[in-house]
């Protein structure tokens, strides 16, 4: 049993799963994310076997993704700090939006267990990931002047339903055109007027 599991995990295969001919966007995004994460682990020096992957690797992965982010997050010294619509460009860094990371973690958490990992060892379900995401959320909300009012307990209580409804694409390659839509969706999702 454990050998089989190891094999599945190592190859990221899902041979004992039914693969529908046209997987949903969520499913295909999840598979892409899973492959990306697997690739990331392989590219580490030395490579990290999935069986030894822990929450620290996941946190490093999230920070690594920031270089591909397209969300302007103002630094505290910036004159536009806290302004949702800055009137001019600034040199603050681009990051992954909190909502993208949150949705990504949800997909990877599901993928980990679908690929033979156990809930007990699931690094994506680790409390430190929750803490990190909360910090990112609060920091970005302040820096961008976009409060996240709703206190959703996504990490703890939600199942796949919530995650699939927030179908947010992490785009690992440069693709500026999509970001606007994405941002829009995130802020509408999290800022709905009360
Ligand atoms: Zn700035």
UniProtKB/TrEMBL annotation:
InterPro entries in the cross-refs: ALOG (IPR040222), ALOG_dom (IPR006936)
ALOG domain: residues covered: 25-152
Keyword Nucleus carried by entry: yes
Compositionally biased spans, kind Basic residues: 145-154
Region (Disordered) location: 1-32, 143-169
Subcellular location: Nucleus
Family: Belongs to the plant homeotic and developmental regulators ALOG protein family.
Sequence ranges of Basic and acidic residues compositional bias: 1-10
PANTHER family: PROTEIN G1-LIKE2, PROTEIN LIGHT-DEPENDENT SHORT HYPOCOTYLS 10
Organism field: Salix dunnii
Keywords in alphabetical order: Developmental protein, DNA-binding, Nucleus, Transcription, Transcription regulation
Gene Ontology annotations of biological process type: mRNA transcription; response to light stimulus
Pfam assignment, any one: ALOG_dom
Protein known as: ALOG domain-containing protein
Residue stretches of biased makeup (Polar residues): 13-26
GO cellular component, one term: nucleus
Organism domain of life: Eukaryota
Gene Ontology molecular function, alphabetical: DNA binding
């Amino acid at each position: 049993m454990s050998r089989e599991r190891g094999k599945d995990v190592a190859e990221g295969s899902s041979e004992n799963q039914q693969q529908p001919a046209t997987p949903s966007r969520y499913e295909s995004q999840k598979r892409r994310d899973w492959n990306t994460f697997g690739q990331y682990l392989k590219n580490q020096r030395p490579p990290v076997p999935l069986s030894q992957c822990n929450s620290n690797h996941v946190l490093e992965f999230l920070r690594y993704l920031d270089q591909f982010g397209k969300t302007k997050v103002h630094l505290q010294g910036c004159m536009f700090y806290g302004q949702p619509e800055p009137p001019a460009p600034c040199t603050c860094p681009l990051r992954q939006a909190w909502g993208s990371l949150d949705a990504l973690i949800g997909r990877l958490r599901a993928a980990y267990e679908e690929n033979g990992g156990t809930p007990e060892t699931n690094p994506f379900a680790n409390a430190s990931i929750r803490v990190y995401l909360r910090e990112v959320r609060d920091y970005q909300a302040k820096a961008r002047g976009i409060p996240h009012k709703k206190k959703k307990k996504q990490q703890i209580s939600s199942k796949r339903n919530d995650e699939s409804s927030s179908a947010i694409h992490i785009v690992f390659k440069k693709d500026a055109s999509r970001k606007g839509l994405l941002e829009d969706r995130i802020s509408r999702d999290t800022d709905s007027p009360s």
